[in-house]
Design brief:
By secondary structure, this protein is an alpha/beta fold. The chain has helices at residues 2-19, 62-75, 114-117, 119-126, 163-179, 209-219, 274-285, 298-307, 329-345; strands spanning 24-34, 43-47, 52-54, 79-84, 101-109, 132-139, 147-151, 156-159, 183-187, 190-197, 202-206, 225-230, 246-249, 265-269, 291-294, 316-317. A 6-stranded parallel sheet has the order 13-12-11-14-15-16, sandwiched between helices. A hairpin with a 4-residue loop joins strand 2 and strand 3. Helix 7 packs across helix 8.
């Protein structure tokens, strides 16, 4: 879910750089082995002034990638970088990497060439709700740097300048779209990275105010598409919320029509009005929303749940949030977002030191 937002931010930035007549290179993690901080699809944009947007590691690779990227900006030729660490990390690449693993990073020009030609269709896809496949040739005798973008609607944009490779890459992208997983694979004698971007979940915050603003500010950077609903115009001023937040002025008696309410929607009801909270909870319980949280003390929440006859519905979380000892809007927002992430991942919250399986395992 974070990769969708990260990609959208990079597409916007590259488009702005193109309008300014500037240059940039894009680094993308295409394969990992062992321990790695970022997953395949993580991106880092490096402009001609050396400014960075995004990230491909926990900070240990960015400086070296930046130097290679500036060379790519000058030469205009894509390149595949390989980083590997072992038990003696300080001697590998001279970078002092702290993780034992391998990372392949593909560097390509961003402001001209195949990626630049796909800025407009990518922007359109990223405004929608369909999964997207971005298939890039990263190594091989032909087509390196060529990109094909498609969606579940079977629309296709981009080219490798080789018809047979285009068709093979599109077919592989369709396979990955069906499986919903990114993959590095061999396609028509070339090595390609097919990144699957899944539409991020929606978070509907019912009620503005300080805690609504804090919740939006915490959720948006993690990848949620945030909608704030309030009946008070003053609580919906755009300056209060992160860029991209949708605001909707609506009283509870107008219902949920036009609001996100599908199975990948998470709702937090927090109007500080017993009547409004009751009506909004009743309205969202009629939808497919996966999670409906209610902010407030336990006694108040139990009263609201009883009033709407919610019973012990497992998707209702009230009081909302993990038990972090949170105090104040920002900490409460963190507790709520952490709970939603755990629910979405099907995880029982616990300390990572107590987890024996790999952190990113299902």
């Amino acid at each position: 879910m974070k990769h969708w937002r990260e990609t959208a931010e990079i597409v916007d930035r590259v488009a702005a750089l193109c309008r300014e007549g500037r240059e940039a290179a894009l680094a993308t993690v295409v394969d990992i082995g062992g321990s790695a901080y970022r997953r395949p699809g993580a991106k880092l944009l490096i402009d001609d002034g050396g400014t960075l947007l995004g990230g491909v590691s926990g900070g240990c690779l960015e400086a070296d990638v930046r130097e290679h990227a500036l060379a790519i900006v000058r030469a205009g030729t894509p390149r595949l970088l390989h980083y590997e660490t072992g038990s003696d990390a300080d001697t590998v690449w001279g970078l002092g990497l702290g993780c034992e693993g391998a990372v392949d990073i593909f560097l390509q020009p961003a402001t001209h060439g195949p990626f630049q030609h796909l800025l407009e269709p990518l922007a359109v896809y990223l405004e929608g709700d369909a999964p997207i496949a971005v298939a890039t040739v990263v190594e091989g005798p032909i087509g390196v740097g060529g990109v094909i973008v498609t969606s579940t609607a079977r629309r296709r944009a981009g080219t490798t300048r080789n018809d047979a490779l285009d068709d093979a890459l599109s077919a592989q992208a369709a396979v990955c779209l069906t499986g919903g997983q990114s993959a590095t694979c061999e396609v028509a004698g070339a090595r390609a990275f097919v990144e699957i971007l899944l539409p991020p979940p929606h978070l509907v915050v019912v009620g503005g105010g300080a805690d609504g603003e804090a919740l939006a500010a915490c959720a948006a950077p993690t990848g949620f598409r945030v909608t704030v609903v309030d009946h008070r115009e003053a609580q919906l001023a755009p300056a209060r919320y992160p860029t991209g937040t949708r605001t909707v002025r609506r009283p509870p008696d107008e219902g949920t029509a036009g609001l996100p309410a599908g199975p990948d929607t998470y709702v937090v009801v927090k109007n500080h009005s017993l009547r409004h909270d009751r009506e909004w909870l009743r309205a969202f319980l009629r939808t497919e929303a996966a999670y409906v949280g209610v902010l407030g003390p336990r006694a108040r929440t139990e009263q609201i749940l009883a009033d709407v006859d919610a019973g012990d519905a497992p998707r209702v979380f009230g009081p909302v949030g993990l038990d972090l000892g949170a105090d104040g809007p920002e900490q409460i927002a963190l507790a709520i977002v952490a709970e939603i992430l755990a629910v979405r991942a099907g995880r029982t919250p616990r300390h990572l030191r107590d987890r024996e399986a790999a952190i990113h395992a299902g």
